[in-house]
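On clarity, I found the account of how folds are encoded harder to follow than it need be. For illustration, here is how one protein appears when written out as sequence plus structure tokens.
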Amino acid sequence: MRYLYVVDFDDTLFRTRVFWRRFLFPELKRIGIPYDISEKVYIASTYKMFGYFIQSLFLSVLHEACKEENIKVSISQINKVFKKTVYSKRARRYFYPRAIEFLHRLKENNNPRILLSSGDKKFKSRFFKALGLNVFFPRGSIHITKKPKIEFIKNLRAKGPVILVNDVLKETEDMVSELQKVSPKTRAFFVDYGGHFKRKDVKKPIELIHSLSEIKVL
């Protein structure tokens, strides 16, 4: 029986933090919005408030911040730049190295697979389509949740062994613990791109890796 792969998106497959700061914010700067305002609004209006990005909220708060700073830019201008940038094929450059190769291997091996992501469903669904992720994940296998991912895991009734791929260690540990209740052979890969952890920090059945190329598809 093939393993079911449950794969995280943000900062596991895709360089999310880098994407906003190096791709969108410079484009907003071209229409007169300083980088520090984009950064401040991005953090304050989304992650600090809800824990995830909401497109409509970000755009409206950014527009209000611009008015307060006497920056003459319309909401339609901001929205146009956002859509043209974020939903462009150029955004695909921000996948981690080997991420697309890893997804190809899962697809070619015909592994059952789930893309699990926290966030606003309306935004993430359109974003994932623009990134081409629908090619790798069959209909119904992309799950976007506003709740902690552990809540999805608690309701997952896997019929066979599971492999989890994620970039947050404590979250990975919690999800593995929950998955083992229904799938004792659950394994996980904790992706530490920054090299902040050592092997002694990670306990089995979780394996520390630094690239998705280290995962052998089973």
